[in-house]
Amino acid sequence: MFRKSMLASCLALSCLLAVPAMTFAFNPSSNLPVNVDDKGIALRGYDPISYFSGKPAQGDSDYKFSYEGGTYYFVSKANLEKFKSNPAQYAPRFGGFCAQAVAKEKKVDSDPLSYKIVDGYLFLTAKSAYKDWTVNVDGYVKQAYVRWPDIKNVPPKGL
């Protein structure tokens, strides 16, 4: 009994000690136009080119490129070069923030697996917003394009 209690206590303590070392997926204080974590990584490390094949994949830090203040990772040199040739085409719209939230003048963290390619561009949403967003994609996208210039460089916590 004592052994199980001690093991549980050690496990709980190790989890608490690990928290400061964790990378947060979203930086609410950042005034960048790109949704980055506390280390400046965009798309939680997913390769933006991979979305266009329908299979989002984690990139590799050996292949990286900074665009609009966020660092993007890629699965290969070929994907990196493709992105560099036209980053405005391949980077997620609205900096990778939830497109539905941007339509409502907010900057909310997105889920890298809640996405849709619309007119050749990558749009992300929060997981909880995806179903509602897909009911009116065109309306939300149109409204987000109107609101984005006003909030682009405002920290999420300031909205």
From TrEMBL:
<feature type="domain" description="YHS">
    <location>
        <begin position="58"/>
        <end position="92"/>
    </location>
</feature>
<feature type="signal peptide">
    <location>
        <begin position="1"/>
        <end position="25"/>
    </location>
</feature>
<dbReference type="Pfam" id="PF04945">
    <property type="entry name" value="YHS"/>
</dbReference>
<keyword id="KW-0732">Signal</keyword>
<dbReference type="InterPro" id="IPR007029">
    <property type="entry name" value="YHS_dom"/>
</dbReference>
<protein>
    <submittedName>
        <fullName>YHS domain-containing (Seleno)protein</fullName>
    </submittedName>
</protein>
